[in-house]
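Weekly structure sync, notes
Attendees: PL (lead), two postdocs, one rotation student
Agenda item 3: pending single-chain targets
PL asked that the sequence for the first pending target be pasted directly into the notes so everyone works from the same version. It is reproduced below exactly as submitted, 349 residues in total.
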Amino acid sequence: MEQVFDLLTAALLPGFGPRKHKELASRVSLAEGLAHPGHHPDIFTRAAQDQLRSGEARRRAERELALARERGAGIVGLGEQDYPEWLARIYDPPLVLYVRGTLVVGEGDRSLALVGSRAVTPQGAALTRAMGRDLALLGLTVLSGLARGTDTAAHRGVLDAKGRTVAVLGSGLDRVYPPENAALADAIAGEGALVSEFPFGTGPEPGHFPRRNRILAGWGRAVVVVEAGEKSGALITARLALEEGREVMAVPGHPSQPGATGTNQLIRDGAALVRNGADVAFELGLLPTQPAESPGEGLLGHLHRDQPRGLDEIQQRSGLTVPELLRQLSELELGAKVRRLPGTLFMRI
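Predicted structure, written out during the meeting:
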């Protein structure tokens, strides 16, 4: 607990961040540095030194811990067992994470970020939601940023399948943004986790989102970009993922569509081309062979227009593996041949 308290104290200091922490750690322990900040004037600003000497820094950390308890949140420090292990390896990992929900130890190799444009097209939103649902059914943890558009569709898709999703915020946990996603945030906290590195009361300032994006990029194995304009924040996430040695995948689009500019460029630059959750699973090595180019029309024979059927029943009738079945159902849905209902039920249109 003392280590977390020191990390929280440091994280709240003006001008102190992950890179300063790394530099300090090359000299002395964090506890030693906090006790004698004047010995390291290149690391601790004058304001930070004054706060440490007066005791204000530790009083503020105590207030943050009290707020976390009041609001049902936890604070996890870098180096603790619950801290995401892949995130801890990035160049500048957050010193602390504020968490509503549950962190799962060892989930990094089965986690990925699903991101894209806020101004997503209806087709892109439908694809993202289907992809989130299908990846959740494969047992993957899907991260996104709770923003409007693609992020919202990704989280909702995972929740459709009762899977695990993590939302990384660019604000404090008590300042959910956008505000219309407050109910969605509560649902995510119930099935997965809401995460932020920002203290309580922090608003959604523009400069916070690039910092948020590095967490999305570094948490798991890959970043999948569905739609992204030329200057989309999703492209920043993809670039950060590449810098950290993560896999990057992108959904192609017609060149005339603004939301395809970024994803098509990613593919030109070497990102894997993916069309659905099965393609993503193949790229991650979860499928033995590349999925077929188009779904077999024979699957439609196992679906009815008047009576929905569940995924288990369709699989039993068709004999397809779950990943291949999900891929075909997703493409049939996008082709307006199948309608997906709540509870992973499907019916023919």
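Discussion points:
- The mean pLDDT is 91.
- The radius of gyration is 22 Å.
Action: rotation student to compare against the earlier draft before next sync.
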